[in-house]
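Hi R.,

Here are the chain sequences for the assembly we discussed:
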Amino acid sequence: MVFWNVFEYVSWSLSAVMLVWMVVDAFMISSQYDEEYLMSSREGGEEDVVHGIHLEEGNT
Amino acid sequence: MTSANITNSSKKPIAMLKVLNPFHIWALGVGIVLVGEFMGWNFTVGKGGAYASLIACWVIGLLYTCVAMIDSEVTSTVAAAGGQYTQAKHIIGPLMAFNVGLYLVMAYTMLCAADALVVGDLMKSGATVLGYANLDTRPFVVLTVAFLAWLNYRGVFATLTLNLVITFLAFASIIVLFLAVDPLHQGVVLQHQALLTDLPYGWIGVVASLQFGMWYYLGIEGTCQAAEEVRSAGRSIPLGTMGGMMTLLVAATITWFVATGLMPWQYLGQAVTPLYDAASLLGSSQLQLMLFVATAFAAIASANGCINDASRAWFSLGRDRYMPVFFGAIHPKYRTPYRSVLFLVPIAISFAFTGLLDQVITFSILSGLLGYTFMTFNMIKFRKMWPLGSIHRGYIHPFHPIPAITLLTLCCATYFATFLGYGSTLLSIMAFYILASIWFVLRRYKYVKRGDQFTMPWPRPKGY
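And here is the predicted structure of the full complex:
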């Protein structure tokens, strides 16, 4: 059945396009941005963080 | 690195976007799980009969309610990606944290592989019905993983909004099926009086069914992986998780009620797609089509949530150097852990290409179960180290320590049930995690910067 074979090839092709897009984008980001910046996130480090406010210091 | 690289000149660290709300959390949790109502739960019937399945549904429902309550309390204070891994790091210690992180990554990656396999098998079933029996499932397995990884790569909001839509539609299909069987009039469509029997294997069958009872709810604990990306973790995580748990209890009970009223336990216990079979028995092609599409939606939603959760867990391990720090990067435009998303794609596809759905699922279930066992000790220690009043909690679960003790008891019962059916798999998985722990202690822990991993503004724990 030609239709189903085409369907399979289209699926392979779409998968390849998306995977290649992600790999290329990841390489481009690595070349454009400093590694230190890309890996600078810290848990609870955001300014608007609402957790971890502790009562010992009078915060509620 | 070249001088042309964009650097962090403002000294403000990069962070994931806080764009999610309680509905996204509901979609993440229920989305991962709901596929279990469409297939898999019915193996409980094969283990112990229809009533054993109902007992498993509610007993394991109690186990997961404890999981949801404990998770909601701890995550409402530890609002960071990594979920239970981060909890273990703060409350127990690095070796437990490493193991829990590994449980999470393995459980979600394998579940994603299993979901992709289901999508491939559904495509083949659809093609067979339309007259082509030789469809190759592999391109559809790869397409499922690739598309969902691409979506996860490009942003969490669109990813979980998609999950919200397709999970809601899949849940709605269960409600429609329930209404279609005329539930108020026994004997018209439903034949419970004729089909329900005594326990065919006695109470040992009930115990054995507990293992597959986890299919009803496996993955709801994944909601806390989104803690770093919700607008208000203290409010959204408990709301989304507990709302999700209530949804699943309703869905699981309806699923059992409809399926056991239409099919004898001997058939139901080995059916591949019991809800689709139930729709087929009603003789409505529209219902059949609806359940076919809903099964596909549920599998896609589950795979989508699994990629989201596995990548956050792997990202957190990388950020704390428990794994190579390379994986702790965040995409500057999409604000996602893009390297972790990308890294897990070939692993998920490799698991899927083995075609060993049973083994993959069993590994996933056992990894989850190990994680739930950890939660009991975690909760007890959390309340001792940070008693009520010492730290802000978005949610406080009631009756402590009864939920933790109940959870541990039910975990032990489920280990025994797993040992009855998959003893060698259970032992080999334990051996795998022991070897991984030895590797971590001897080869990996030296790279962990102990001070850097604790950046949460928490008070000093009691007694330290």
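Chain B has 17 helices and no strands. Chain B touches chain A through 65 residues (CB under 8 Å).

Let me know if anything looks off.

Best,
T.
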